[in-house]
Design goal:
alpha/beta, Oxidized Rhodanese, domain 1, five-stranded parallel sheet, 10 helices, 30% helix, globular
């Protein structure tokens, strides 16, 4: 299954009753995306709150939820492990990739991102609504895939050999712009490569697979190489993970703590 689906193809699935649509909109500036969802969303779409469905036992933003928390949340959305899930966001392609990655982390195979997001849906003349959905709760049995994620300790051990792709804007990578979260050191991990998420996107969707393969080939991505995606807090890193999957490079690990963790001065992690 490709990582993306066209708006009209999704519309046909909705009309056939064979898709579960998820609004995964999120922004760093604190805008109430749930309120925007309630005002306007794709018919039948449920809202996935990245901050609420996360591990709050650690002082880091929107860390991946436990399998039990995820199962409870998506079960209330009426989603089963066999559901064909399609995620979108209001920007085109931003936080929807993080929700896609979270479903994949929990072993969900039939999950795609709406190509171009809500803007492309509306540009195609397809309907939106403010009517709240009323899904029937179901049981969800996750199949956690720990190979898709890496923590601080493991990354420090693999840093010399892994290909680390940093999705933050280049100015932040090169310490030419401040971090949006206070208290973090500027710069990047030793050996990391700058690959801003924006470089993988065109018109609110991933670039074609052939172009993505060329980009990743230029970064040394190859079979047998460990690839780690990272960013500011694990959201845009998921765009890189999704692009790698689209290009045929499965097996990337997302560093969930990302710079929100690595960049803390108290950790004394190496910073360039």
């Amino acid at each position: 299954m490709t990582t993306q689906i066209d708006p009209r193809d999704l519309h046909r699935l909705i009309e056939a009753g064979t898709a579960k649509v998820v609004d995964g909109s999120w922004v760093l500036d604190g805008t109430d995306m749930r309120a925007l969802y309630l005002n306007e969303h794709i018919p039948g779409a449920v809202f996935f709150d990245i901050d609420a469905i996360s591990d709050t036992s650690v002082p880091l933003p929107h860390m991946a939820p436990s399998p039990a928390m995820f199962a409870e949340a998506v079960g209330k959305m009426g989603i089963t492990p066999d559901s064909h899930v399609v995620v979108y966001d209001r920007q085109g392609l931003f936080s929807a990739a993080r929700v896609w990655w979270t479903f994949r982390l929990m072993g969900h195979e039939k999950v795609q991102v709406l190509k171009g997001g809500l803007p492309a849906w509306k540009d195609a003349g397809l309907p939106v609504t403010d009517a709240p959905p009323s899904p029937a709760a179901v049981n969800y049995a996750p199949r956690f895939n720990g190979d898709m994620i890496i923590d601080l300790k493991a990354l420090k051990a693999e840093l010399q050999s892994a290909i680390v792709l940093d999705a933050r804007p280049a100015a932040r990578f090169h310490a030419q712009a401040p971090e949006p979260r206070p208290g973090l050191r500027p710069g990047h991990m030793p050996g990391a490569q700058s690959l801003p998420a924006a470089a993988l996107i065109r018109d609110g969707a991933l670039k074609p697979a052939a172009e993505l393969r060329e980009i990743f080939d230029g970064r040394g991505v190859a079979p047998g190489k460990m690839v780690v995606t990272t960013c500011g807090s694990g959201v845009t890193a998921a765009i890189t993970s999704m692009a790698l999957e689209e290009a045929g490079h499965s097996g990337a690990k997302l560093y969930d703590g990302s710079w929100a963790e690595w960049g803390q001065a108290a950790l004394d992690t190496p910073v360039v």
